[in-house]
């Protein structure tokens, strides 16, 4: 089975890619093997160093995706509050929006479209 | 003092922790790293995490607020490890020995291997203390093998 592909962007072979991934993982494993094996698991030795403070739960320490665009959502707060009010979670509301918008579009088509 | 191995196994990485020092000893530790003394040429290097360190360099008496932190930092250093106390305050409390907010000298909180007295000790004395701790570490490593 020939797996060589010549695409407009160049040569591509999935087997070669698998080989590259395997070699990369092998190098990573060899580097990992060179680490200090004497750390005692389950003790402070394997805990992150936070200037001597006790580490909190992962959830409390992680930076969530919403933190990254906090400034964006904060500056557009009025817009987001309006959008949140629209997202009631009630299917009947969503169907109402759907039917309403369809009716407006149909009316616009009847009045000005088709010509 | 005989060196346990013909050549030192590897460089000595040191983590420095201030448990309530006036910064006098800390300045002398930094002086030991300046070009005049340049301990890095011997492989003695300050590191940013106790998890990377072989030795703990402690300055100052231990304030009540630092007790749990210094214990945790000590526990985070991988074994075998050595602790060096720099300065009179860490050894005895020094001028702060009667202070209401001290838990005591360093050896009341964590085990100590080498004491370097002085207020503050000169960089030569600090280097001498670190070398003594290094030799003890080499012995501990030899025992573990």
Shape of chain B: globular
**Ends apart, CA distance between termini of chain B:** 21 Å
Which residues of chain B form runs of ≥5 with pLDDT under 50? none
**Helix-strand pattern of chain B:** EHEEEHEHEEH
Please estimate the helix content of chain B: 25-40%
Describe the main β-sheet of chain A briefly.
Answer: 2 strands, antiparallel
Helicity of chain A, as a percent range:
55-70%
Largest interface: A-B, 13 and 15 residues
What is the strand content of chain B?
A: 15-25%
- Strand order across the biggest sheet of chain A? 1-2
Please give the number of β-strands of chain A: 2
Rg from alpha-carbon coordinates of chain B: 15 Å
Number of helix segments of chain B?
Answer: 4
String of helices and strands of chain A: EEHHHHHH
Tell me the number of strands of chain B: 7
The helix/strand class of chain A is mainly alpha
What would you call the shape of chain A? flat
Question: Main β-sheet of chain B: number of strands, strand sense, barrel status?
Answer: 5 strands, parallel
Give a structural overview:
The complex is a heterodimer of chains A (115) and B (145). Chain A has six helices and two strands; from the N terminus they run ββαααααα. With 115 residues, chain A is mainly α. Chain A has a two-stranded antiparallel ribbon with strand order 1-2. In chain A, 1% of the residues are buried. The mean pLDDT of chain A is 88. Chain B has 145 residues and is of the alpha/beta class. In chain B, the strands form two sheets. In chain B, strands 2-1-3-5-7 form a five-stranded parallel β-sheet. In chain B, strands 4-6 form a two-stranded antiparallel ribbon. In chain B, helix 1 crosses helix 4. In chain B, helix 1 links the parallel strand 1 and strand 2. At the A-B interface, loops of A face helix 2 of B.
Key terms:
heterodimer, A: 115 residues, mainly alpha, two-stranded antiparallel sheet, 6 helices, 57% helix, 5% strand, B: 145 residues, alpha/beta, five-stranded parallel sheet, two-stranded antiparallel ribbon
């Amino acid at each position: 089975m020939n797996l060589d592909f010549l695409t407009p962007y160049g040569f591509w072979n999935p087997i070669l890619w698998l080989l590259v991934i395997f070699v990369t993982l092998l190098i990573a494993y060899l580097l990992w093997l060179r680490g200090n094996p004497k750390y005692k698991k389950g003790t402070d030795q394997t805990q992150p160093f936070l200037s001597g403070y006790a580490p909190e739960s992962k959830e409390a320490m992680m930076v969530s995706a919403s933190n990254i665009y906090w400034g964006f959502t904060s500056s557009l707060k009025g817009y987001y509050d309006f959008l949140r009010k629209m997202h009631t979670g009630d299917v009947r509301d969503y169907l109402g929006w759907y039917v309403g918008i369809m009716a407006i579009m149909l009316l616009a088509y009847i009045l000005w479209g088709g010509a | 003092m005989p060196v346990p191995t013909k050549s030192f196994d590897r460089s000595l990485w040191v983590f420095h922790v201030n448990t309530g020092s006036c910064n006098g000893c800390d300045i002398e530790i930094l002086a030991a790293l300046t070009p005049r003394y340049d301990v890095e040429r011997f492989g003695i290097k300050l590191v940013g995490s106790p998890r990377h360190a072989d030795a703990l360099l402690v300055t100052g008496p231990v304030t009540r607020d630092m007790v749990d932190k210094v214990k945790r930092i000590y526990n985070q250093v991988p074994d075998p490890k050595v602790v060096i106390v720099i300065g009179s305050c860490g050894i005895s409390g020094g001028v702060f020995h009667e202070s209401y907010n001290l838990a005591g000298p360093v050896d009341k909180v964590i085990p100590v291997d080498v004491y370097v007295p002085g207020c503050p000790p000169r960089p030569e004395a600090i280097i001498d203390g670190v070398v003594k701790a290094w030799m003890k570490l080499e012995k501990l490593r030899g025992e573990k093998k």
